[in-house]
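Q: Okay, next protein. This is SAP domain-containing protein from Vavraia culicis. I've checked the sequence twice, so it should be correct. Can you predict the 3D structure?
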Amino acid sequence: MDFKKLTVVQLREECRKRNINSVNIKKSDLIDLLLRYEDENKAVYRDEAGESSSVPLESRSFDELSESEKIQARIRRFACNKSGKDSEGANALDAVYAEELQKQEERRRRFARPADK
């Protein structure tokens, strides 16, 4: 969504929809808040398999993936059972480990300063 084309009233309404405090904030700051919120939530919304719901992992290059997505891709690629055939899913501990790494990365993104991103 192009927030620059919206009026201050419309921007405040968008902030209210997203539960963002918009009292006594300039238009440029409102736009920054909404853009930051959109960026953070793109990373947060994941489907149950841990993949991004907007773009599948397979269509992006390996370098574009976050660390947790790289680990999940490796787990899927190397997951196999004792007979050497591909297993249905990764080991439960691997899945928990990957999920924890994903949570840590999301926290790091959420609390990072704008210059660190």
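A: Here is a summary of the prediction. Residues 3-46 form one domain. The first helix runs from residue 8 to 17.
Q: Noted. On to the next one.
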